[in-house]
Amino acid sequence: MGMQTRRTWRHRALAGVAAASMVVLAACGGTTGEETTGGGGEGTEDLPLIYGVFATPLEEPWDGAIHAALQSAVEDGTIEYKHVDNVNTADAMERTLRNIASSEQPDAIMGDAFAAEEAVRKVAAEFPDIPFAFGSGEDPVEPNMSVFDNWLQDPAYLAGMIAGGLTESDVIGVVGAMPIPEVNRIVNAFVQGIKETNPEATVKVSFINTFFDPAAAKQAANAHVAAGADVLFAERDGVIAAAEEADIPVIGMMVDQEEEAPEHVVTSLIWHMRPTVDAVVEQAENGPAAVDLGEYSFMNVGGSELAPINTDVVGGVPEDLVQQVEEKEAAIMDGSFTTPVDESAPAGSIDVSRQ
Question: N or C, where is the chain less crowded by C-beta within 10 Å?
Fold first, then answer.
């Protein structure tokens, strides 16, 4: 299926149904969440209740992608869903999870554990009959702690090819969260993609050392622009605003962010969490497991993709570059090309000609 027509997942993921009743968990340190049910709330007593517990506000695309996938499952009538977000400390995460597990008794709990690994695993051990599935850089733990991650190296490589083909200054700027493996492999794949289309380019990489600080990310992006970057990669929220002000192309992250700046977002790395959600729903129905769900995020199983290329972006996108990217995408899908996975910390300034 061509990249210009692949919008089905995006439409379904953003079409979740809003709900009526509120879940008051602010006392535990999070923002009040919404209860979301399928089929107008009718017959939901027979559906598994999945609870989302998110460390950041849902405006942060990483957690937003999980939330959107859960909402799409609601729309399909397969789950009942409640959530709380902005649970931004380990202590708050522990209290919130324990409160939800004991009072709500959900059939499964999903969220992100990167900043609160110990807290999440502690509570999971206290409730062994409830499947816990959390974004994590650590291993699963028997009997009920499964892990997942955003394995986006394939769309990152393709996006890098685009960035390398668009830059005129041969300088590209990247703003990431922090140099941890799950971020590093995306940035490194992006750099490798740049190398394929522009071996003379230099990539400037900076980290804001937090998962959500749009002001800091924008400031870092502006520094790259001042240093000559004329294409940006928004691994973190805030970079697109800088690209729009500088009137240069930018690559989005997690969801198709074209609507945020239609003249500047050339494409985005999209994380489709629905295959992972479906695997967790199976645990909710059949009993907990302790597995690594990372495989469900790979491009060849529908867990990730590159958003349709926006050829109307400032400066345009050459047709031959689009063709190159489509050919590489086909090679990834048929297995004739495997994107390298490099989780080492990238340097602050990378001369791809020396790699």
Answer: N
Beta bridge partners of 203: 172, 350
CB-CB contact of 172 with 229 (8 Å): yes
Alpha carbon distance 142, 166 (integer Å): 47
Residue ranges, CATH 3.40.50.2300, the chain: 8-150+273-301, 153-272+304-354
Angle (CA) 202 221 256, round 5°: 95
- Closest by Cα among 333, 284, 342 to 305: 333
* Rounded-to-integer distance, Cα 250 and Cα 258, Å: 10
Taking the alpha carbons at both ends of the chain, their separation in whole angstroms is 33
* Residue in 112, 115, 131, 12 with CA at minimum distance from that of residue 66: 112
β-strand 108-112 against 49-53: which pairing, if any? parallel
- The amino acid occupying position 47 is L
CB 196 within 8 A of CB 164: yes
| Length in residues, the chain | 355
The CATH T-level fold of domain 8-150+273-301 is Rossmann fold (3.40.50)
Residues linked to residue 258 through DSSP beta bridges, in sequence order? none
Q: What is the model's pLDDT at position 177?
A: 92
> By C-alpha distance, which of 174, 172, 220, 175 is closest to 198?
172
Per-residue model confidence (pLDDT) at position 324: 98
Q: What is the pTM of this model?
A: 0.77
Q: Find, among 205, 198, 164, 185, the residue nearest to 353 by Cα.
A: 198
pLDDT over 70 (residue 20)? no
* Contact between residue 299 and residue 332 where contact means Cβ atoms under 8 Å apart: yes
Q: 153-272+304-354: CATH homologous superfamily?
A: Response regulator (3.40.50.2300)
So what's the pLDDT on residue 43?
A: 53
Q: What's the CA dihedral at 296, 322, 161, 169 to 10 degrees?
A: -150
- DSSP letters spanning 63-124: HHHHHHHHHHHHHTTS-EEEEEB---SHHHHHHHHHHHHHHT--SEEEEE-TT-HHHHHHHH
Q: Which band of pLDDT confidence, cut at 50, 70 and 90, is reported for residue 211?
A: confident
Which two tokens mark 341?
């996975």
